[in-house]
């Protein structure tokens, strides 16, 4: 249920067909949108029901593999359960079959950067290492034939993917939690519900398993105190990492990085602490951190043109991500933001926008409808000029307007702070379109 375009649905369908199951794939998106995914599965005995969900398919199924974006509350999931179906998710099927050692990384922010850096460090150490999970374009189940008991498997895991582990009471042997902030509250009953989904990454660990938590975030600090395994904390505020119940802090040695922002130092501290606990030598860690440029769509520097740096932060889909992006730069900012709401608190983001941004260009959407009055309120409160230069329904017009506003020495920051649906397929499509626009500038 849910073929999608990023790999998870395709992997589930391929795996099920390869195991000899009779497979139907159903997705509400049109056949035209899903054509690349259907093409990727050509030659397999799979029936596609696209552009709709049919009740008959959910009454027919013995197992429903739901895409992470499908909520438990879906009436089709309930219908399948009423007819005796098992509800599964790709990541649970993977963990149940995986012979290697799994290092799982989750958190509201920073999980992709942390997972990517852990993967690069482990590879640089010479260990056989694969990466999967919530990684665009990777079919995680399709990795299984390459995995032996010696393989290290780095999995970035979303809260939705982690829900699939709870029925089986399984967790990765190594768990890393970056932080927990308000997010996805349009699909969860509240913060406790959302955080508890994340907690599946360590809840079912054994006493000899390993878990690393960010001590500076209240949620992950609490979870670190509760976790059953061998627990380490990382803390920029305390200057390093330490075992639970220990006063001895291992100093943070790996600050030589091309990546901007304090939040990236948090990610590096988590990744390097994990690598050291897995036995990687310090010189390998230091060299990998020095050359690690970050990941696409996350404060990614696209180019410098006429003295202006163009930054793609399209993975910023929440106000807290938008706020952190602003705090990563000292230069004058031209901000492109806006999109559709997840009903998250704006917190200090509007205040930071008015403080830090000379010019602001907004993309239309339900989130922008929440943000605009909050910016105007901050303008009055701070007694400064309104930085907003317009709300645009066409992203090309918005980006062209933003480019016109730039001066040498500026940063043009594309950090929407909301989701992308409507104007773009997803945040990756949004980022790709920004990058293509910027690279095409004369």
Automatic annotation (TrEMBL):
On whether Kinase is a keyword of this UniProt record, the answer is: no
The segment(s) forming the Mur ligase C-terminal domain are 297-416
Which compartments does it reside in? Cytoplasm
Enzyme Commission number: 6.3.2.9
Gene Ontology biological process terms from the UniProt entry: cell division; cell wall organization; peptidoglycan biosynthetic process; regulation of cell shape
Q: Which UniProt keywords apply?
A: ATP-binding, Cell cycle, Cell division, Cell shape, Cell wall biogenesis/degradation, Cytoplasm, Ligase, Nucleotide-binding, Peptidoglycan synthesis
Question: For ATP, which residues are the binding ones?
Answer: 107-113
Q: What Gene Ontology terms describe where this protein resides (cellular component)?
A: cytoplasm
Q: Which pathway does this chain act in?
A: Cell wall biogenesis; peptidoglycan biosynthesis
Keyword Cell cycle listed? The answer is yes
InterPro entries registered for this protein in UniProt = Mur-like_cat_sf (IPR036565), Mur_ligase_C (IPR004101), Mur_ligase_C_dom_sf (IPR036615), Mur_ligase_cen (IPR013221), MurD (IPR005762)
Task: Provide a Gene Ontology MF annotation, just one.
Answer: UDP-N-acetylmuramoylalanine-D-glutamate ligase activity
Its family? Belongs to the MurCDEF family.
Q: What is the role of the protein in this entry?
A: Cell wall formation. Catalyzes the addition of glutamate to the nucleotide precursor UDP-N-acetylmuramoyl-L-alanine (UMA).
For this entry, the protein name equals UDP-N-acetylmuramoylalanine--D-glutamate ligase
Name the source organism: Dictyobacter aurantiacus
